[in-house]
Amino acid sequence: MRALLAEDDPRIAADVERALGVSGFRVERVSDGETAWFRGGTESYDLIVLDLNLPRLDGLTVLKRWRAEGCENPVLILTARGAWTERVEGIDAGADDYLPKPFRMEELIARARALVRRAGGRGTGQQQFGRLAVDLNRMTASLDGIPVQVTPLEFRLIAYLALNRDRVISPPELLEHLYGDDDAREANALEAVIARLRRKLGPGVIATRRGFGYHLDEAG
Predict the structure, then answer these.
(1) Fold (topology level) of 2-120
(2) For residue range 33-75, what is the model confidence (pLDDT) as tens digits?
(3) Which among 136, 158, 173, 205 could bridge 125 via Cys, Cβ 3.0 to 4.6 Å?
(4) Where are residues bearing 4-aspartylphosphate located in the sequence (predicted)?
(5) Pairing state between β 26-30 and 2-6
(6) CA distance readout (Å), 9 to 35, 54, 74, 101, 117
């Protein structure tokens, strides 16, 4: 799952990035509103965590611009605890949820996962695809009830296919959500991950639609 974090406080940003990272998100971090506006408006994210008090362009303005431009990425805003007016303005401007500072990372992760599930039309973290079960909360996969050991990268791929179970995902889109900007985004890297997963899950779970991309096979 791909997340954009817009936070100018280095300590908070580092803590949030670490918490999201160990929870299965591939995080891209920015520290000012103008960069956040550009990145969030031109790229696809499963989640955006947006601080409202950003330099160069405040978070509320960024959020309003995104929604006016048709950006539908799920947005969790971070606000000062006493600023209830900011929270109201943020929700009215199109935020999907808010979290007042200071906050516990466990709550942030729970809200982040809920937003991702909601955006994918899933009410629960438990997903079943024939013989394959995916737990988005515990970041685990099992086949016929037997746990399958997967790497964080492999789980991110399975999770993204699970959250988009109603469509075929193209290789460029999968690469974008699996790798950071500084990583190589080569088709053979994606094929290598899928090959490893197919050895672990069996050949019928991750299906290929030639010329289009990949999806989880409900009958696999």
Answers:
(1) Rossmann fold (3.40.50)
(2) 999 999 999 988 999 999 999 999 999 999 999 999 999 889 9
(3) 136
(4) 51
(5) parallel
(6) 15, 9, 22, 12, 28
